[in-house]
Design goal:
Elements lengths: L2 H5 L6 H16 L27 H15 L3 E6 L2 H9 L5 E7 L11 E3 L17 E6 L6 H14 E10 L3 H8 L2 E2 L14 E5 L10
Length: 214
């Protein structure tokens, strides 16, 4: 091919190339709902502006198995701001339970009817078909480490649960969590894919398989 032939090849402008790169980056944020790895943790990347920090594989698996055991056969699990636990529950393909994800990030709408839009600032602004006390176990992780966020998330949790509560949040919230939800620390220590500056704990209000803190 001659140099003159090369000159005839269409060239993308800098603006067009930047737009194309942005498009491909956005596509990476949205998993293929038909893909085999659609429930893999991290397929939807963390958005730090939404204070998203996904659990490690080990923690997500441990919490998912605990939720299954706590809900019992035919039980219902509500994952409140805990998408990585939801993903692990679906990845396990457990037919013993049904699960819903209450989440602010609309990227998770790829999970269809399992997704329920949730804004902790409006704790009881839920769809009409979400009945009070309709979930056997609720696992929640307030997105922000603040008393206000915990208080509002706790209102949602109390509305949803029939009794059992799993809560993951900072160790500094222990006293407030006990007052709001009647939970106590577990000996199991949750970890994240990225190292967090704050000490993180798991709490439960029932005799869970996550151990008792001594």
């Amino acid at each position: 091919m001659s140099d003159s032939d090369d000159d005839d090849v269409p060239q993308l402008s800098t603006h067009t190339l930047a737009a194309l790169q942005e498009f491909y980056a956005e596509q990476k944020q949205h998993p293929d709902p038909r893909g085999d790895d659609r429930y893999s943790i991290g397929i939807i990347e963390e958005n730090w502006q939404l204070s998203q920090f996904w659990y490690s594989q080990e923690t997500a698996l441990r919490l998912a198995k605990e939720a299954i055991a706590a809900a019992g056969e035919g039980g219902r699990v509500a994952c409140v701001s805990t998408p990585s636990v939801y993903q692990k529950l679906r990845e396990l393909r457990s037919e013993l339970i049904s699960v819903c994800l209450f989440e602010f990030d609309r990227r998770f709408t790829v999970y269809g009817e399992d997704f329920i839009f949730y804004d902790y600032n409006r704790p009881l602004d839920l769809p009409g078909d979400v009945a009070a006390h309709s979930f056997d176990v609720v696992i929640a992780d307030p997105p922000y480490l603040s008393a206000d966020c915990l208080k509002k998330t706790a209102e949602t949790v109390r509305y949803l649960t029939r009794g059992k509560i799993l809560l993951c949040t900072g160790a500094v919230m222990e006293e407030a969590a006990a007052k709001l939800l009647g939970v106590t620390p577990c000996s199991f220590l949750p970890t994240h894919r990225r190292v967090l500056a704050n000490e993180f704990r798991c709490y439960a209000n029932y005799d869970s398989g996550l151990g008792h803190d001594v």
